[in-house]
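User: Second chain of the day. Same drill as before.
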Amino acid sequence: MKLILLLVLLAVALVIPATTSAQNPDDDPFNRALSELKAGNTDKAIAALTEAIKKNPDNADAYLIRSSLRMTSGDTPGALADVNKTLQLKPGMGQAYHERAILRLIARDRSGALQDLDAALARDYKGDGIYSLRGQLRAESGDLKGALADLDESMKLNPNNPQTYGSRGGVLLALNERDRALNDFNFLLNWYETEPTKRVENKKPAGTEKPLGAADANKPAPFNVGIAAQTVNPAPGDKEVLPVIANVYINRGLIYSAQGKSDAAISDFTKSIRVDAKNVWPFYHRANELEGKGDLAAALADISRAIQLDPLNGNLRVEHGVILTLLGNTKDAQVDFNMLLQADRVTWQKRIDERLAAVKMKVPK
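Assistant: Same format as last time:
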């Protein structure tokens, strides 16, 4: 069963408490940078921070703030250089490791990001967002038990972030704990379907003594600047939530399919398409279910739509050829198969044979 991991979109939050400037009463460029930052003038803030660094090369806070601003401006190399300097000056600063983890993730260095998240937590810089991100990266690397432990810890700090339920459900599904996965998926999808305008903080689930979104004494206090260690629970209509919702419908549909509940699976795949019509996998999985019901014309329409979205996906080509074969159109089916066999005959011939054997056993005559 294919696991569709749910990577929650990261939001950069710059937090500048009033006490920061008071810590540098004689640093005029630094104070000016904070004023420009609060006014939303990023370029002027960066320029003032550069001036502050020239005046005081050991100002770790200035480097960290400039790193965050450079990150939001798209200057990943410059941001990385600044956060590295921050850690050179203050090697025990957990929040700097957290920020560097995000920068490494942006640069597709998942291994480095994971190491930095370990370092942030080892320095007692903790928050539900850090545990959640490390859990997802652990899941991607195949450490499912470690991922589950992190996502459980994230939920202890913030028990009501719907996106974490989606991530944990995906890991539980990969661990073949379908009942627990289904509970997580149901919680998230019920929230999405029944509370289109309410924010999740406003509701208190059964068995939870503190309201959703309540502060936790174990969470870190607001820090000078950087990535938020604790997340803000989203609303169902928030744009960044929709890809997560679409994938959770797919995952719940896969559970229903494994349970033999074909109609329920098709319903969830259809809902996923309504949320995100550019995702190829609900079309692919719905086509599989339609094959099993003998509705080959509808299955062909779904897999054709998926190929339009991702024409180089070999698995979609296999399925397209299989459905054409079942419809008796072996000539066009062979066009699909030949395209794959020319690329890698051994791998794709095995895949084609397996799919043909499987569907011929389950498709009604």
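The chain has 18 helices and no strands.

User: Great, on to the next one.
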